[in-house]
Specification:
This protein is an alpha/beta fold and 309 residues long. The chain is built from eleven helices and 14 strands. Strands 1-13-14-12-11-4-5-6 form an eight-stranded mixed beta sheet, sandwiched between helices. α5 runs parallel beside α6 and α9 runs parallel beside α11. 42% of the residues are buried.
Length: 309
């Protein structure tokens, strides 16, 4: 197992300017051409400072210097920029992942995205479970080319809309987007957004009236979704579902034929999401023949040992 010195996620969404974090970002015109929300001069200066910072933990720690300036001149809290080799429309005011890609793309899951690019190719299939803004999906779709297949699973309507826009802006027609919430049962539930970060959603166990925006969603097991989408083999999986990894992977490994299991899994580390049950997801995968090849502060990258014959 290799342990990298990749950037730690030392920054939290709450470190963003409080007024900016609490602002409700209005949906943008989905037909507006990329460039309409080009950051103003002050924002571009802040972005330049952010991108000049060293990659890694040091750069993330210093990003606070550039953040207020970079956020100061965004039209409607939206930024049309280029990052990660893509044209992106980002909403850094309400999503931590988009904020990091906006301000310090050189620090954004560098090892994970390099591994994803290397694993993708013609005819390969990637599933992005908990796609969020879809940055992994966009990178995979571009790296894999037209014959690659990318399935982005994201229950939030707004995040699916953002991903669909960026896919169109980059001419990526090989991304399929599903709004199902994956779990270990079939039915319906409520997806609750906790706080202001749109990346922080969970299926509600009970309707306890807790604060947070909620949306009714269809719930299905991963094997059901793959059957409906006629997926016969996975090559790469990314899974980041705020502690729900075990509920998705346990029935998948139990019921799906080994031939469909992905060769590589990028999985959020339990130390990051701090959900006790998620600790078994990593050990479960290892018990099924995966080994941890690389471990960053945020994720574990696992490879499946396939037997010959």
């Amino acid at each position: 197992m290799n342990k990298t010195n990749t950037p730690e996620h030392t920054e939290t969404f709450e470190e963003m300017d409080e007024a900016a974090a609490s602002r409700e970002v209005a949906p943008t015109d989905p037909g507006a051409a990329h460039g309409r929300f080009r950051p103003g001069i002050a924002s571009r200066l802040g972005m330049a400072i952010g991108r000049a910072l060293p990659p890694g933990r040091t750069g993330l720690k210093l990003a606070g210097i550039a953040r207020p300036l970079a956020m100061s001149a965004l039209k409607d809290g939206v930024a049309d920029i280029e990052a990660l080799g893509l044209k992106l429309r980002l909403h850094p005011m309400d999503n931590l992942s988009e904020k990091r890609a906006f301000l310090t793309p050189q620090c954004f899951d560098v090892v994970e995205l390099e591994a994803l690019r290397a694993a993708m190719g013609p005819g390969k299939t990637f599933i992005d479970i908990g796609a969020n803004a879809g940055l992994y999906s966009l990178v995979a779709a571009k790296a894999g080319g037209r014959t690659a297949r990318v399935i982005a699973v994201e229950p939030q309507d707004e995040m699916r809309r953002r991903l669909a826009y960026n896919a169109r802006a980059n001419g990526l027609e090989n991304i399929e987007i599903s709004g199902v919430a994956l779990a270990d049962y079939e039915g319906e539930s409520v997806m609750r957004l906790i706080g202001h970060n749109r990346g922080g959603t969970q299926l509600a166990v009970t309707d306890d009236g807790a604060a947070g925006r909620t949306t009714a969603v269809r719930v299905a097991m991963l094997t059901t979704l793959l059957s409906e989408m006629r997926v016969t083999r996975l090559d790469v999986m990314k899974i980041d579902v705020e502690g729900g990894e075990l509920a998705i992977l346990a029935p998948f490994f139990a019921n799906a034929p080994r031939e469909i299991w992905p060769d590589m899994i990028i999985m959020e580390r339990p130390a990051i999401n701090k959900v006790e049950a998620a600790r078994d997801a990593l050990s479960l995968a290892c018990s099924r023949g995966y080994r941890v090849e690389t471990e960053t502060h945020a994720n574990a990258i696992l490879k499946l040992a396939r037997t010959e014959g």
